[in-house]
Specification:
With 213 residues, the chain is an all-alpha fold. The protein has helices spanning 3-9, 12-26, 33-40, 44-47, 54-68, 79-95, 100-104, 111-126, 131-154, 163-168, 170-182, 184-209. Helices cover 73% and strands 0% of the residues. Helix 2 crosses helix 3 (33-40), helix 6 packs antiparallel against helix 12 and helix 8 packs across helix 9. It starts with a helix and ends with a helix.
């Protein structure tokens, strides 16, 4: 079969799914177009019918992960709960793949995602935030989630606190151990809630003073 016919048979979706499967197997550092071509049983030039280069492929992989794990949330959900739940869904999407946060880091939304983001901004604006504040909150939470998952996916088990530490740093140890007892999901949600509390305080202050938040 000719290279052109092979490229037609090998769809863009097939390449993306193969790349995501390979990402889980070998990680982002080892992922290359050559390794992907071997994984798919084709020659490397065949991939360029669908993606001009590795950077374009990685960006498409990041977008696919987001779209695959998008969840519709109840329209009547309180905006504070919506932000926390949306952040939790984002975290789960990144955790679904090895090095998911590293894959996503540095990417920017593209046209297929603009309508989704517009709807999110509109929801926050209906709650009383200005477009600037709404985008700022989404931006801050998004950056927070990526950084959080980067830590989760790189972190090694480490019992850093011992009895001597508990004697010397009792407040630190009490706070740290209480947080750890919450479990990973609850700790993440509690941390996002701090960002939401800040946004809610700004909104409340603006309403009390009759200014836009």
């Amino acid at each position: 079969m000719s290279e052109k016919n092979t490229a037609i048979r090998l769809t863009r979706e097939t390449v993306l799914r193969g790349a995501l499967a390979l990402l889980n197997e070998i990680g982002i550092d080892a992922l290359s177009t050559r390794r992907l071509a071997q994984h798919l049983g084709v020659q490397s030039p065949t991939l360029y019918w669908h993606f001009k280069n590795k950077a374009e492929l990685l960006k498409a992989m990041a977008e696919t992960i987001m779209l695959d794990h998008r969840e519709e949330l109840p329209a009547d959900m309180a905006w504070q709960d919506w932000v926390v739940t949306n952040a939790s869904n984002f975290r789960r999407a990144l955790l679904a793949y090895r090095d998911g946060a590293r894959l996503h880091a540095g990417t920017r939304p593209q046209e297929p995602q603009f309508a989704i983001i517009e709807a999110k901004v509109a929801l926050l604006c209906r709650a009383g935030l200005t477009p600037e504040r709404a985008v700022n909150l989404l931006f801050a939470v998004g950056r927070f989630v990526v950084g959080w998952v980067l830590e989760e996916q790189q972190m090694q088990p480490d019992d850093t606190l011992n009895d001597a530490d508990r004697q010397r740093y009792p407040l630190l140890c009490e706070g740290w151990e209480t947080l750890q007892d919450k479990g990973a999901d609850a700790l993440f949600e509690a941390s996002v809630r701090l960002l939401v509390d800040g946004a809610e305080a700004v909104l409340t202050n603006a309403n009390n003073h009759g200014t836009q938040s």
